[in-house]
Predict the structure.
Amino acid sequence: EIPEKQWACVIEKTGGPVEYKEIPVPKPGPDEVLINIKYSGVCHTDLHAVNGDWPLATKLPLVGGHEGAGVVVALGELVDDIKVGDYGGVKWINGTCLACDFCQQADEPLCPKALLSGYTVDGTFQQYCIAKAAHMTRLSKDIPLDAVAPVLCAGITVYKGLKESGAKPGQTVAIVGAGGGLGSLAQQYAKAMGLRTIAIDTGDDKEKMCSELGSYAFVDFAKSKNVVKDVQAATEDGLGPHAVILVAVNEKPFQQAAEYVRPRGTVVCIGLPAGAYLRAPVFESVIKMVTIKGSYVGNRRDGAEAIEFFRRGLIKAPYKIVGLSELQKVYDLMHEGKIAGRYVLDTSK
Ligand code: 8ID
Ligand code: ZN
């Protein structure tokens, strides 16, 4: 009962347009599964892929998307630990070699042969998507496929970033870009991990959302006359947050965070604004013993842990559902910075 054709969103060339059209249903290779994607989140990475603004080319034509949740409908002949009918998630890391130096140490996002969903292989903006069985995220049947979709990239990534920050329960973390998809989930994971959060973003809608998500303070970067001072003033002793999670799509905050982070604090860079550079004052970075690091999605274990927080009901971030055919409208809103939280696409319409 797997159809020959399916609906998908395809770009033929970098820059778009995004075309909603019928394409063939792919067939899984020996170590792959075919997943009937029910819902897919839309990540800002998907917009970077359309715009081609990163120093890494996409495949073309391209089906984007890497936050896909659905039902397994076919298995390659080597797959013996997944059944047809199981729930599965397709994340950014679609597959890796499982043999290199990095894969051996469970750093598989760093695998030089990593396949990237919706970037170097077709992703989840289609009704039937392929994933390497070893990397399919296992989802139990009590997990709602719409709400879990954003966890598959945004959730895993911010959970990993919070772990990489080294922040301990009771400490304060600044979330920069808190009103977006990654930022909204970061506030929920931080809360579940016993951390306090300061949200940084702009606009009344995002401020309201961040307060509902558990942040005790909000700094509006567009209204603030001095973001560095305002973030530090939002901490009890005025010395700044223990960690900063940077998920904004803008260079400026990557050049401010080291100034307001607490002595001994850690700045975790996650957002990927095009052509941007990190900048930090050497003097303050040294005498404050600041750590600045990058964090890139998560390994399979991080994924399983992030899903388990969600399954237990600890992660509730707002999302809106629209049809797969409306992807371009979502990109337009995202480009304008008008999305509070995440959009999730229903692939049946
Ligand atoms: O593994 C990774 N490192 C990874 C994984 C997934 C996504 C990295 N990303 C990257 C994406 O490619 C993108 O560059 O993280 C970035 C954020 O993705 P997103 O959360 O999906 O984007 P969004 O929903 O558009 O949210 C971005 C927010 O940043 C705010 C915007 O207002 C928006 O709410 N923002 C901006 I633009 N400038 C800001 C500033 N100066 C800012 N917030 C605070 N200060
Ligand atoms: Zn993503």
Q: What stands out?
A: The chain has a mean pLDDT of 98. The chain has two domains: 5-153+298-346, 155-294. The domain at 5-153+298-346 is CATH 3.90.180.10 (Quinone Oxidoreductase; Chain A, domain 1).
